[in-house]
Design goal:
This protein has 377 residues and is mainly alpha-helical. It has 15 helices and no strands. α3 (78-86) crosses α12 and α6 runs antiparallel to α14 (330-338). The model is unreliable at 1-38 (pLDDT under 50).
Amino acid sequence: MGEAPEIQLQILVEEHKVDENTVEPQTNGSINQSTIATRPRNYKWWLLMSIYTFFLLAGQSVATLLGRLYYDKGGNSNWLATFVQIAGFPILTPLYYLPSYKSSSQNTNNSNMKINPPSVLLVSGMYVGLGLLLAASSRLYSVGLSDLPVSTYSLICASQLAFNALFSFFLNSQKFTPFIINSLVLLTISATLLVFQNGSSGSTPVSKAKYVMGFVCTVAASAGYGLLLSLTQFCFQKVLKKQTFKVVLDMIIYQSLVATLIIFVGLFASGEWKGLGKEMEGFKLGKSSYVNVLVWIAICWQVFSIGSVGLILEASSLFSNVISTLGLPIIPVFAMVFFHDPMTGIKVISMVLAIWGFVSYVYQHYLDHRNSGIGKV
């Protein structure tokens, strides 16, 4: 990762300083749901969006493939696989101490003095609730990835966009248009088709029962993740009532801390920790590779978090999820190369439907931005 996050934040801080002097504060304490409307679309904005998108897609793809590698080469602890998805959040804490970021945070606090901050009890309850949901979703994702071919798993994960839109209808006043409905139907069919996929396809054969269990867990995890994004946006709008980089960073770190503690307790309560030494000894690629795989899974998921956080800050949680869904059809291609997952006819049809649903969803957002004038440079 190097110095890239610091360079991005320095650019971001400069844009925040410009925005604070040019955009009038909102007197009702609510935030604009689309931050794109208040930011100039200059080359810095496009550069940030490109970097954040790359971080999200690269982190998600590599972390998912490494997660499958962990299981294929002898790993079998779902609790440990879940733990490394979340526990890497401390590598984000240095972002708090960037000098330019701290000065920008002080200016932002001064500009938001009229907004009454929420109570500590309310904010704490918010982080605990979101952390519980994050822990549950991550646990279900781990079970799904352990029981399914990585190509099938990634295609089912595309259903998270449909769940996100559904929950956003109730929590974020998301409007259902023909294009949104078309997207929901296509993504639902795309995931449902994979029920008929042969469970033994892929690098590691699994029974039909485990395949069904993996399918159900992955769909449930996608629903949980979609709900998590909608609740996060709801908390920005109704509880925190502001959307600065510090607030978004707090959201990621504190809910990850809660989720990490929950998964840590689960790891020891389940007794799986007793077999980790034996698991490392029997890992097909060796002990050092075992540690490296787990460490890089943790790092890659935090790279994904940086990209996701950046897109939420610069656009919205829905836009971040759209970009995440865009990367899911990429994973089956890499899975075919590295894990020799067969690209069956059902998977091809499912992939086409998922991409079609994604395009339909993005086109609706394009129409929204164009009609509101946001699409104008």
